[in-house]
Write a structure and sequence with these properties.
This protein is 36% helix and 36% strand. It is of the alpha+beta class. The mean pLDDT is 95.
Length: 169
């Protein structure tokens, strides 16, 4: 069974190490190694993680049988959506329904914590990340728009913005 557990400040180094493992394994066929290294430094340094938390991003480990198999981070936005900032599973756990279970568990948790006021998930995904795009389609997300984000150092993220409406309980 999948569960989601808030990451403590003390566990941020473990989260950053997991991000490095996942990114170097997965993104090498999608973006350059230089961009991977830049993004890891930009988003997963201790300082960057603390700044994201300060800006209301909540980091959580994804647990399977109490073992950490990935992480998910989100921010509740003013438009009553939950923006999934990060969602990653270790490669050996991908394609085995753990990701779908995590989306379901997060939706239930978000609705419970926010008195059902949150109406949808939103996220960005690289337009060349076909595996993840198909995963999101399978889990009820649709493409809302196309967006390019300049992240500095000459790198641009070419993304889809995807959305999933929550089913009313």
């Amino acid at each position: 069974m999948i569960s989601i557990e808030k990451a403590s400040i003390e566990a941020l180094d473990d989260l950053a190490a997991m991000a490095k493992t996942i990114w170097l394994n997965y993104y090498i066929d999608i973006i350059s190694i230089d961009q991977i290294q830049y993004m890891l430094n930009k988003f997963y340094s201790q300082e960057a993680l603390l700044e994201q938390i300060k800006n209301n991003q909540q980091f959580n480990f994804i647990l399977y049988n109490q073992q950490s198999i990935g992480f998910i981070a989100y921010t509740i936005q003013n438009d009553n959506t939950c923006f999934i900032n990060k969602f990653y599973l270790l490669s050996e756990y991908q394609g085995k329904s753990y990701g779908s279970q995590c989306i379901d568990a997060l939706e239930k948790q978000i609705q419970k914590e926010n008195s059902n006021a949150i109406s949808a998930f939103k996220l960005t995904v690289n337009r060349q990340n076909f595996k993840s795009i198909n995963f999101y389609f399978k889990n009820g997300f649709t493409i809302e728009t196309v967006a390019d984000f300049d992240i500095g150092n000459g790198f641009v993220m070419n993304d889809f913005i995807m959305k999933k409406l929550f089913i009313a309980c």
